[in-house]
Amino acid sequence: MEKKKILVARAVFPAVLERLASHFEVQSNQDELNYSAPELAAALQDKDGLFSSPSVTIDGALLAACPRLKVISNMAVGYNNIDIAAASAAGIMVTNTPGVLDNATADFGWALLLATARRVTEASDWLRAGHWKKWGYDSFLGADVHGATLGIIGMGRIGAAIARRASGFDMRVIYHNRQPVADGMAPGAAWVSKQQLLAEADHVILTLPYSSATHHTIGAAELDAMKPSAILINLARGGIVDDAALIAALRAHRIAGAGLDVFENEPAYAPEFLSLPNVVLTPHIASATLSARRAMADCAADNLIAALHGQMPRHLVNPAVR
User: Fold this and answer.
1) Which of 10, 119, 237, 315 is catalytic?
2) Active site residue 284
3) Contacts with 122 (C-beta within 8 Å, 6 or more apart), sequence order
């Protein structure tokens, strides 16, 4: 029986490739070539499946050019890189990898929050530049995390994992979703309006999914509503924050600082961020532990194998397509 064909669009663990190769004829991109849209379309012409990642843009035009494609397995929780409506209209299943990266991402949220609040990277850069000659009582004074109010916008699995960790810092936790979450998902956390959260939180963490409805959830007006001493952390997706408005707010010290793991138009980012000492910048690595990334790759492989063997993949984003 002839094997179905798949494209693995970005480099992945060799063991995962070997597993996929036992089921499919695999074309892989271990050299990390940046496919143009025409190149990606050409590579997919004879493919039944695509093993994708958040850096691969899959729009309606691409899907229209790939009539054989049956499933897109995205190695990520988010799938804003994929035109879901176009995929559904074309009868293409889309899957993602929720759950397996929640704790790694929540841990990193705290790393980013602590680094920003306590000015870790700013102090490290200053030391490495040879400026440290003596101890000073007012050197790199930061913000307390213990006992502070933590505001979480987007109380899903990752938001709840962050909230659970806040108990160790004796924090008051407030959150905003369109609706309060079920009892027990975030014990001790209180639902508040977005405006109340922005006004009261000492630290705001964003963990909501990106969509047209959440585009620029944090813009100039929201930044103005925050405390001048507040810290903003974006673990979610670029585009949820208006980066230009954030740069203006950081430059004017309308908020104390920001920690960003994601950016609008990434991997491009606004170069103005680099001149701001009160921002911590990381290259979309919140899930970057060996165990989490391997679990994501295995989950994406599971989804692809199930879908192309005629079974229901566990994490189907568009269940109307079966």
Assistant:
1) 237
2) yes
3) 140, 277, 278
Q: Is residue 96 part of a domain?
A: yes
The domain of 266 spans: 102-281
By the 8 A CB rule, do 53 and 10 touch?
yes
In the numeric block, the tokens 């050197």 are attached to: 139
CB 71 within 8 A of CB 51: no
Question: Are residue 37 and residue 166 in the same domain, yes or no?
Answer: no
Query: If we measure between CA atoms, which residue out of 220, 210, 235, 233 comes closest to residue 287?
Result: 235
**Identified catalytic residue from 10, 284, 293, 315:** 284
**Considering its fold, how many domains does the chain have in total?**
2
What is the distance of C-alpha 94 from the center of its chain? 18
Q: Rounded CA gap, 163 and 185, in Å?
A: 10
**What pLDDT is stored for residue 50 in this prediction?**
98
Q: What is the pLDDT of residues 59-109, one digit of tens each?
A: 999 999 999 999 999 999 999 999 999 999 999 999 999 999 999 999 999
The model's pTM is 0.93
Q: Which of 23, 215, 216, 266 is catalytic?
A: 266
State the CB neighbour count (10 A cutoff) for residue 191: 15
253 is catalytic: no
237 assigned to active site: yes
pLDDT class for 2, splitting at 50, 70, 90? confident
